[in-house]
Amino acid sequence: QVNVVESGGGLVQAGDSLRLSCADPRRTFNNNAVGWFRQAPGKEREFVAAISWRGDSTNYQDSLKGRVTISRDNAASTVYLQMTSLKPEDTAVYYCAVGRSSYSGSNPSSYRYWGQGTQVTVSS
């Protein structure tokens, strides 16, 4: 069963921007934080960003600060990940995950539900 659905990925050129969306058709957000992770070929899944239920707290991977922004619209049950100045090393499958509480950090074990991912490919 699908709990959250990612969209917005695609093939872009270096320097471009993308906005990924995480929709919640089964209403699993349920007062919980939401995070974004990514996994490149041959690499482990890594944390990108997280946002608290109320949107008053955000957390970013240090190396991505300044290039990514996470936001949420609870009325629309959607969380967004805006990415700018994309680089080839940003190429990965990006996953949305629902946290186990209203605040969640960078540890994947803090997240309960995962989407199937959306592919982002950045060409040089």
Task: Describe the 3D structure.
Helices cover 0% and strands 47% of the residues. It has 124 residues and is mostly beta strands. The strands form 2 sheets. Strands 2, 4, 5, 6, 9, 10 and 11 form a 7-stranded mixed sheet that branches. A 4-stranded antiparallel sheet has the order 1-3-8-7, with no helix packed on it. The chain is globular, with a radius of gyration of 13 Å. The mean pLDDT is 95.
Topology:
Blueprint: E1 5-7, E2 10-13, E3 18-23, E4 34-39, E5 46-51, E6 58-60, E7 68-73, E8 78-83, E9 92-99, E10 111-114, E11 118-123
Parallel strand pairs: 2-11
Antiparallel strand pairs: 1-3, 3-8, 4-5, 4-9, 5-6, 7-8, 9-10, 9-11
What multimeric state do the chains show?
single chain
What is the strand content?
over 45%
How is the main sheet built?
7 strands, mixed
Number of distinct beta strands: 11
Report the order of strands and helices: EEEEEEEEEEE
Mean pLDDT: 95
Rg calc:
13 Å
Query: Structural class of the secondary elements?
Result: mainly beta
Count of DSSP-assigned helices:
0
Shape: globular
Descriptive keywords:
seven-stranded mixed β-sheet, four-stranded antiparallel β-sheet, mainly beta, about 120 residues, globular, about 0% helix
Tell me briefly what this model is:
With 124 residues, this protein is mainly β.
